[in-house]
Amino acid sequence: METVVDIQDVSWKRQGKSILSNINWKVERREHWAILGLNGSGKTTLLNMINGYIWPTTGNISVLGQTFGRTDLRELRKSIGWVSSSLGERIKGSSLVEEIVLSGKFSSIGLYDSYTEMDRNRALEMMEKLGCSKLVGRTYQTCSQGEKQKVLIARGLMGSPKLLILDEPTNGLDFLSREDLLLTVDRLARQENAPTIIFVTHHVEEILPVFSKTLLLREGSVYAQGYTEEIFTKENLSQFFSTSVEVEWKRNRAWMSLR
Ligand SMILES: Nc1ncnc2c1ncn2[C@@H]1O[C@H](COP(=O)(O)OP(=O)(O)OP(=O)(O)O)[C@@H](O)[C@H]1O
């Protein structure tokens, strides 16, 4: 099996404080993972590290077989699609959605490079895949929150990444748009040639069965990791959140409520 992310004994310290402590985590190809953690648990820090924006204080990390310190990070980043709210905030509202998707090929925010007919067709194909091709010709600012997320995911796929990171993609979505986006991600993840996906969330019930593995992060440490269905017990989650919770499984998803 091909290892996509290999993190060994990684810690990251800032101002004498451990933000990440002794993280060990391996993601194999086509093994889709969810990362669940409360605000401030270290999720974004971990993603910044996987993308090579920050380096471990101690420990080793390699992504897609490239060991940090011995690799061209800009090249590596082209193999990683990263969809986050900070990406969304950097997009100009007046940009056409198809141009936003196309810009994913160059990992740029605006579209400055020239592109071919083939690139344009691929952009349309990615929009088709995400179920948002009807938006062609529209500007970003006229799209709903859910439509914007789909455009950004299509952009993330444009460069045929081996790893796709979806960082809280359901933020700001209403109940129906959230379910629609989750189903779209589920469909994408099940495709034959799908990239390995890391799905970051605060919410247990957003973790669909296709995310067969979950990493629980708490206060910068791995609280638990492994098969989602084994991890999401009421005992585990009550300890994890330091609050008594009930867990109910419906449609292969765990739903959590206060006890
Ligand atoms: N450069 C930095 N210097 C000091 N502290 C930092 C730095 N970056 C992050 N932190 C701290 O590390 C902790 C983890 O932050 P991080 O943003 O990774 O959490 P998160 O799980 O992504 O949170 P959220 O769910 O709210 O996005 C926080 O307490 C944050 O204040």
Automatic annotation (TrEMBL):
Residue ranges of every copy of the ABC transporter domain listed in the record: 5-244
Gene Ontology MF terms: ATP binding
Keywords: ATP-binding, Nucleotide-binding, Transport
Xref: SMART domains: AAA (SM00382)
Pfam annotation, one family: ABC_tran
PANTHER family per the UniProt record, alphabetical: METAL TRANSPORT SYSTEM ATP-BINDING PROTEIN TM_0124-RELATED
Identification of the protein by name: Molybdenum ABC transporter ATP-binding protein
Organism in which the protein naturally occurs: Oceanobacillus caeni
